[in-house]
């Protein structure tokens, strides 16, 4: 897809934008002349023309305090091919209305055919355009609760590391802090070639998170729901998840019928009792895989599963990797 290149890319910077993602995106998108010296199939002529844009030409402080130079004001940019809003420092929630000029500019660019992208918490600014309502999106899992509260009409998929949306896939959003790598490789593969994307990944040592964010997600249950009985069952389960029949035990303790307990539990937590138990058990298994050398079959037993094969299947369904792969990826260094 190189016939319309170079393609103009606008990286959006505001005070608090993180330096690493915006610098990484800039460096990778402009690295083609160097990469082409070592890999065939990579154009030596830069396929992207990249600018850092903001409300005015100025220098803003990144979240770390490092300076970021805004090269062009958005009112100077009448047309662009791709807009990317990288990760920015945010509080627990998202405060709307802080950057109205940028939001209006992104709406205009989209109307003219530009692709709109975000990395990590940059999704908040993209969502303010209203263009993601009714669509799927992703961001860092820790930003999920605050994002959902601010933008309830966006279907958030924090288990995914890269989500595209729109009739012409004109929206692309990546999840965690390092997921700008997934986004930039997607853009190179789409607008240059898959061969070029692979070559850039190898040259820059960039990693695709093919399994999504699922392996990284801790289980963060909903507890501020106001149902004291359900909260009591959640607290009980924290130390009793490995008992033989935890759902039956909780139902008996509640004094409700099984059907009534299931409805009430799901209304409060968003999960069925058995689904909640599975999440708690797999989260406990993750900690054991990270911190101990226990055999996987032993961990299966310790968290409540006598059938190790069934445990492995459940673990992979929830974490998207096998227990062994998870241990290799996340095991902490321990002295010999």
What's the structural blueprint in terms of helices and strands?
Elements (H helix, E strand, L loop, with lengths): L6 E6 L6 H11 L2 H4 L12 E7 L3 E4 L5 E4 L1 E2 L8 E4 L14 H12 L3 E5 L3 H5 L8 E2 L6 H7 L4 E2 L5 E4 L5 E4 L5 H12 L2 H11 L23 H13 L5 H9 L3 H12 L3 H19 L4 H7 L5 H12 L3 H8 L6
Parallel strand pairs: 1-2, 1-6, 2-5, 6-7, 7-11, 8-9
Antiparallel strand pairs: 3-4, 10-11
- CATH architecture assignment name of the largest domain: 3-Layer(aba) Sandwich
Strand proportion, as a percent range, falls in 5-15%
Number of domains: 2
> What series of H and E elements makes up the topology?
EHHEEEEEHEHEHEEEHHHHHHHHH
- Name given to the CATH homologous superfamily of the largest domain: Class I glutamine amidotransferase (GATase) domain
How many H/I helices?
14
The first-level CATH class of the largest domain is given as Alpha Beta
User: Oligomer, anyone?
Assistant: single chain
pLDDT averaged residue by residue: 94
Summarize the structure.
The chain has 336 residues and is of the alpha/beta class.
Keywords summarizing the entry:
alpha/beta, seven-stranded mixed beta sheet, two-stranded antiparallel ribbon, DNA-binding, sequence-specific DNA binding, 336 residues, 2 domains, globular, Rossmann fold, Arc Repressor Mutant, subunit A, 11 strands
